[in-house]
Design brief:
The complex is a heterodimer of chains A (about 210) and B (about 500).
Chain A: H1 6-13, E1 38-45, H2 48-60, E2 66-69, H3 77-81, H4 88-114, H5 127-153, E3 177-182, H6 190-199, E4 204-209
Antiparallel strand pairs in A: 1-3, 1-4, 2-3
Chain B: E1 13-14, E2 17-18, H1 38-50, H2 55-81, H3 96-120, H4 130-151, H5 177-210, H6 214-223, H7 231-264, H8 276-302, H9 311-342, H10 345-356, H11 360-372, H12 380-383, H13 386-413, H14 428-451, H15 457-462, H16 487-506
Classes of the chains: A alpha+beta (about 210), B mainly alpha (about 500).
Chain lengths: ~210, ~500
């Protein structure tokens, strides 16, 4: 995470140059600063309502490579963004079924097949006596799938992201809301997208660049 | 409470604190009191970790950590010498070790109840207390797991409990409740730790983004896993959290049920009863909430968390204690009734032996602490007095330990044949290890308070009125949470220059 390249400090120091608002949106002077590849645009919003309204607008314009970043899950943001439901529950179901089968096979094979012995006159294999262990393996496998599935689908752990270079973005874990539209989006146009975000109520817009 | 309080300032005061314990069906009482915006929530919670270590913390740490160290030394002494250092004997082959195990596992259950069951029931007040209640769960399970591990006598061979292919060509016995325990407690510890950690990732990211020192930046940076608040990540995060809550709920019920099977599947009078699983689970929640209060009341006092852990939170917990305390009392009564109704003379003798036998004092301590003391919570005045709450919580902590002592020791010391009766007297190692386990628990908890976010900031922010989308023409109305937009002026402090613009921008659809 040692990304304090000269360009990054430049971005932070000249913060106000990268501060766009409605009046300065067409001001393209600052773009010359950037020699690296453009990652996208970072637009800051100060409250939930304007963030959600802006997200709806971005969704309706047909953008695909974009995201809303917020300090907490915003109620109804999935609808506003048009995000598809996650497949995580199905993965967890599969994990749980795997755990169930593993628990049944483990207790049956070890105690009834590979190493059968009598204890307290109990049957070598009866489902009832093995329910606790089978239940626990089911829960364990499902829970591990939920955790690691969530991390995998969200591409975490993530050691580097161009957004982390922006000091403004640090408040995403505190009290500010951001919409990030990536440059690879087919609808992306540096100038137009910037203008669109400004009219959508962004209080500040910065360009985000990939590292050299 | 006839008027609808729109502003937190309007709420009545109670012993110098905001009283949000009213029940007005027309509105919900605020879950966060005081004038807070998102930034001040972050500030309040993070400052606990970021500011200079308070003196009270050091004092507590210097009491707890030597006890924890003594615990480690005693474990070393026990492992190198043998479990004869304990007072366990024949017939009382299970004593303090198992009592402590059941006690600590039970303590943990309240944490899972708060984090999972109350989440599924959409009890939003849990957001302020779930993080440290979950931490309590994990530390309690660590203390619990230590005792059976050293009770096996040769703890370096404890891995034999796990099913793994080995040169002895033997497998564990899956029909034994002791093996069920290995799976139940092992799964519980794993799932609780994951649930706790996953829930903490967004807050660790907050600490990362605020960190100034290099060590902090790296440590919190690694722990936060690169979380950037992406809504697509939040979607999966919330789904995973919901699924884990759904999985942890039956899990927590299964764990203490399995612990109770250790007793219930035996044929000993006093143990061999079908009421044990629900009775143990209710007792666990009862005792666990007492421990949550024991930790929460000093924590909110010393760390300035009164706006988040409000009187309403404490009152809700006392109500849960009262409800579960009544279940526990009922279970005690049913045990006695069943013993009498069974016509089984050994069972009847065991139950007469509890209040009247040589361990009568243990029974009556249990009775006064668990049955009598929570009755105070029928009265609102008691539910709102911190001293009463703290005293009753302490009584219940003691009472629940003695409940397990009564179950384990009084059933074993006099069973079928008087010729094989025997008394159990704890040795100094027994008592020292009990104290030591408390030392370990509090040491871990103090370290947690100092280095990790004690309150789930992201979750608390979601129960604040500012976190909801509002149509522009409804700005003046009180919102769903019964709280008007008191935060808008407060929030503007940080965003003054931009506030005007956002309003202008917001009005352009």
């Amino acid at each position: 995470m040692s990304d304090t390249s000269p360009k990054t400090t430049d971005t932070i120091e000249h913060d106000e140059h990268h501060y766009y608002d409605r009046e300065h949106v067409d001001d393209a002077r600052h773009i010359e600063h950037h020699r690296t590849e453009l990652y996208g645009l970072l637009a800051q919003f100060d409250d939930v309502t304007s963030t959600v309204e802006a997200a709806k607008k971005v969704r309706d314009l047909g953008f695909t490579h974009w995201d809303v970043h917020s300090p907490f899950p915003i109620h109804g943001i999935d609808k506003a963004m048009g995000t598809k439901p996650t497949i995580l529950p199905w993965l967890v179901l599969a994990g749980g079924i795997t755990g169930l089968i593993a628990g049944v096979l483990l207790s049956w094979w070890t105690n009834a097949v590979d190493y059968p012995y009598l204890i307290s006159g109990k049957p070598q294999w009866s489902f009832a006596a093995n329910v606790p262990v089978i239940f626990e393996t089911t829960v364990l496998f499902a829970a591990l799938t939920a955790v690691f599935g969530m991390l995998f689908l969200s591409k975490l752990p993530l050691l580097y992201h161009p957004l982390f270079k922006h000091s403004r973005f640090r408040r995403v874990t505190n009290d500010k809301f951001f919409i990030v539209i990536e440059a690879i989006d087919p609808k992306f146009n540096r100038k137009e997208t910037k203008a669109m975000l400004t009219t959508a109520g962004a209080v500040a817009i910065e360009e985000v660049h990939e590292e050299d | 409470m006839t008027s609808i309080p729109h502003q937190p300032a309007d709420l009545p005061k109670l012993h110098g604190e905001v009283d949000n314990t009213f029940d007005d069906p027309r509105e919900r009482s605020p879950l966060v009191v005081g004038t807070h915006d998102f930034d001040s929530v972050t500030q309040t919670v993070c400052s606990i970790v970021e500011r200079k270590t308070p003196r009270a913390w050091w004092i507590a740490f210097f009491i707890a950590s030597p006890l924890a160290f003594a615990f480690v030394l005693q474990i070393g002494y026990l492992v190198t010498t043998g479990i004869g250092l304990w007072g366990n004997n024949n017939p009382v082959s299970w004593a303090f070790d198992i009592v402590n195990f059941v006690f600590w596992v039970g303590i943990g259950h309240a944490g899972t109840l708060i984090s999972a069951i109350l989440f599924l029931f959409r009890q939003n007040w849990r957001t302020s207390i779930n993080r440290f209640a979950e931490a309590m769960t994990i530390f309690a399970v660590i203390c619990a797991g230590t005792f059976p591990a050293i009770h096996v006598g040769r703890p370096w061979l404890a891995y034999w409990l796990l099913p793994y292919p080995n040169q002895m060509e033997m497998w564990p016995q899956f029909r034994s409740p002791l093996l069920w325990d290995v799976f139940a407690v092992g799964t519980y510890a794993t799932v609780s730790a994951l649930f706790w950690y996953i829930g903490m990732i967004p807050d660790l990211a907050t600490l990362r983004d605020r960190a100034t020192g290099r060590i902090r930046k790296i440590a919190y940076g690694l722990l936060a896993l690169g979380w950037n608040g992406s809504s697509r990540s939040w979607l999966r995060f919330e789904k995973a959290y919901l699924l884990l809550a759904g999985l942890a709920t039956p899990l927590v019920l299964s764990v203490h049920s399995v612990v109770s099977f250790d007793f219930a599947t035996s044929q000993l009078p006093g143990w061999h009863t079908t009421i044990f699983p629900p009775y143990f689970v209710a007792g666990a929640v009862f005792g666990g909430f007492a421990m949550v209060l024991t930790l929460a009341i000093p924590a909110r006092q010393f760390f300035g968390l009164k706006d988040f852990i409000t009187m309403r939170h404490l009152e809700n917990m006392t109500k849960i204690i009262l409800a579960t305390g009544m279940i526990v009392s009922y279970a005690y009564a049913v045990e006695f009734f069943t013993a009498w109704y069974s016509g089984h003379s050994y069972e009847q003798f065991t139950f007469m032996n509890r209040p009247l036998g040589p361990y009568w004092w243990a029974f009556w301590i249990m009775f006064i602490c668990n049955v009598v003391s929570p009755q105070l919570f029928w009265f609102k005045k008691c539910r709102q007095n911190l001293w009463v709450i703290m005293t009753v919580a302490m009584f219940i902590n003691v009472g629940m330990w003695f409940e397990r002592f009564v179950i384990v020791v009084t059933s074993l010391n006099r069973d079928f044949l008087p010729s094989s009766w025997g008394m159990y007297i704890p040795t100094w190692v027994d008592l020292g290890m009990l104290a030591g386990s408390f030392g370990l628990f509090f040491t871990l908890f103090l370290l947690f308070c100092r280095f990790l976010p004690m309150v789930a900031m992201a979750e608390v922010k979601t129960v604040m009125p500012q976190s909801h989308v509002h149509a522009h023409d409804e700005h003046h109305k009180a919102d769903f949470h019964g709280d008007s937009h008191h935060a808008s002026p407060a929030a503007s402090a940080a965003t003054k220059p931009t506030d005007e613009e956002s309003k202008k921008g917001g009005s352009q659809p």
